[in-house]
Amino acid sequence: MKLIITFLAMLFLQHCSAQKYSERDFYSSASLKSEREKFLEQTINNTIQKNLSKPLTDSTESDYISAFWAMQLIQYRDEITDKAVRMCINDFLNRSTEFQRAVLEVIYSLCQKEFNDEILSLLPKMNNAKLFAMSVHYLKQSVDIKVLNELTNQFEMKFMSASENPILKMLKFDLLTEFRKNLTTPPLIDLLKINLGENSLVIFSLQRYNRDYPGLLIIKKPDGKFLRDNSGKIFSVPQLARAISDLPGYITNGNTPEGILSIQGKDVSKNIFIGPS
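RE: above sequence
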């Protein structure tokens, strides 16, 4: 099975000050059933339906963006949301870049294949690499790869070379490998043997190409040996590195990206949707 490899090189953790946590530090009242039911009702009535009932203007764009994010979070659609999304697609070119990105993200998450004609007609009019890449990914299930390649080449000639823009560079790589269907990965053992120097703790996050399925996290200690449990088996943790949108990792709000990352410090999440962690 194909794996997309993500591994995090934690090279500076030994400099972080030791801190003790209690069970209370990881308690969140938002996880209670009563709170979740209240949150769901408020999200549908206020964040989604109330916001989308407002006329779309420059001053209400942020309300629509909040509604789109909530729709993805709870995977929600109804007549009000469908009507609003179609209106936003029709008014796409008159809106801000941030708003356009939110529209593309919500249709990618909830409306696959429903706006192919509209997005295909918008592609030649786009001048933002991120929005262009999101649109190409939206069309990948329905539009011939040769057509998407040609449109991407035209975009590149108009605005920039792929080497000058990391998003466009990754998009061209995805097109070259037919969205990684034809990607040949090196032997996993070569990755696991990597030596990042003494006192380096390495976390390997091994993920499938299809992020609907969980991957696996394992830890390589500074002495070069893998962390094991009491029975002697290699310690591992199931890990779902999938975003709500399921967009690629080089797009905002996309899946956990592949690559090598260095952890410089730590903090406790203040985001209610993530919870204390």
